[in-house]
Design goal:
heterodimer; A: about 260 residues; mainly alpha; Cytochrome Bc1 Complex, Chain D, domain 2; 2 domains; three-stranded mixed sheet; 7 strands; B: about 160 residues
């Protein structure tokens, strides 16, 4: 009798633990920055004519159709207007580059094709042409779920990005997690704190009335923390991009989004 | 030639900004932390509550309303990251409030609240624009401390 009783007790304990695990959300629910917008801003995002991101896509298409120094065209590999881009694949960036043996962001990949395939002079990371191409190509994966692989080769970069996310910076001495994990939903002045996801980038910022890519936005974060920033193509920001994108794995891509 | 002149003007402008910035920076007062408080006013200064209220609201200074609320103020955008500060003196002494404003991280190392008088040496990657400086000066910290302390006196009719 005794061993049976004990195992019943153990069974019940296990049962209760399982119930608790199922009912308590192990991972906080993912919420897109979209859900934190006013109705007016939501409407703006959804209307192709009001959303300034679509002008950026048009500019991206113009650049896409411009001949390279070697007379080649993006469309020779990626189809008319980029029709051959595979949404699932675009949604996987940043990913590990087998030949370079390091992770590349979508921006890095555009730079690689621009330089190696079209034989062009490299674009500056601040160049509007690069921003426009990224917006146009990321938009090809609109509605696709973000899906960054963080196992195998990618693991150490993801871990470095996560460590960065938890590091305090600047005179304000805060880390990203304090605003975007701990106090999400609380009010910072008139601004409700979102989870700080990246599924809308490149996006149009209402505050500065400008299109920005992720590194440009991160530099603004650093300015508000009164911290010394990093270069847009630095390993630090690349690792952070891996962590931020992966953290939002499963969110639908909204490029070009509207955000505060 | 024109290019050179422009670069020169830009250069002098930047140097001027650094100069003004340095004028504003002061030697950072040393202070002794006793328990969870700073008993002596920073640099033995006396705070002015009226000025403290301005600094409390000012987005480029205390910016306290970004995270806190104070129901005696009618500012429309008040945050709720930190606790309501009405009657804070019922919970904390003046000396305890002083440490919390000067360097909250010495009370709770995980706090999001910036250390307004935290030694720059304990800050990671401060922007060159703010190098060697604290968010608030010793006088400004004392002004805000005296303002918060005055709130309680006010409700019991002793301050103005």
């Amino acid at each position: 009798m005794k061993p049976f009783n004990l195992s019943l007790f153990q069974f019940l304990l296990l049962f209760i633990v399982c119930l608790l695990l199922i009912s308590s959300p192990l991972k906080a629910e993912l919420i897109s920055g979209y859900d934190f917008l006013s109705n007016q801003a939501k409407e703006m995002q959804n209307d192709d004519f009001q959303n300034p991101g679509y002008a950026m896509i048009e500019q991206g298409l113009t650049t896409y159709n411009r001949k390279g120094e070697n007379d080649k065209l993006c469309s020779q590999c990626h189809g008319e207007n980029g029709d051959k881009f595979i949404p699932e694949s675009i949604a996987q960036f940043p990913k590990f580059h087998k030949i370079l043996k390091r992770p590349v962001t979508l921006r890095d990949q555009i730079q690689l094709c621009w330089g190696k395939r079209l034989d062009n002079f490299p674009l500056l990371y601040d160049d509007t042409d690069l921003l426009a191409l990224e917006t146009m190509i990321r938009n090809k994966a609109y509605g696709e779920e973000v899906n960054v692989n963080i196992s195998g080769n990618m693991q150490p970069y993801y871990d470095a990005g996560k460590k960065f996310y938890l590091t305090r910076f600047g005179q304000m001495d805060m880390n990203c997690a304090q605003c975007h994990d701990i106090y999400t939903g609380k009010m910072l002045r008139g601004q409700k704190l979102s989870q700080g996801h990246t599924n809308g980038f490149p996006l149009f910022r209402l505050e500065s009335q400008k299109m920005v890519n992720l590194p440009q936005r991160l530099r603004e974060c650093f300015r508000s923390l009164r911290a010394e920033t990093f270069a847009q193509d630095s390993d630090e920001f690349r690792n952070l991009e891996i962590y931020l994108n992966a953290r939002g794995n499963g969110l639908k891509i909204e490029t070009p989004a509207i955000r505060y | 030639m024109i290019f050179k002149e422009k670069t020169f003007t830009l250069f002098s402008l930047i140097m001027l900004i650094f100069y003004i910035n340095n004028l504003a920076a002061e030697d950072i007062a040393r202070y002794e932390v006793t328990g969870n408080s700073i008993i002596k006013p920073l640099n033995d200064l006396t705070g002015k509550p009226e000025r403290g209220q301005e600094l409390f609201r000012d987005q480029n200074k205390g910016n306290c309303l970004a995270c806190h609320r104070l129901s005696t103020l009618n500012d429309s955008f008040q945050g709720n990251i930190g606790p309501l500060l009405d009657n804070v003196t019922l919970r904390l002494t003046e000396a305890q409030i002083r440490l919390r404003i000067a360097d909250m991280k010495q009370v709770n190392p995980y706090s999001i609240m910036p250390g307004f008088y935290r030694s720059p040496e304990r800050i990671n990657r401060i922007s060159p624009l703010y190098e060697g400086s604290t968010i608030l000066t010793a006088q400004e910290v004392e002004d805000i401390v005296s303002y918060l302390v005055s709130l309680n006196l006010k409700s019991s009719g002793e301050y103005k």
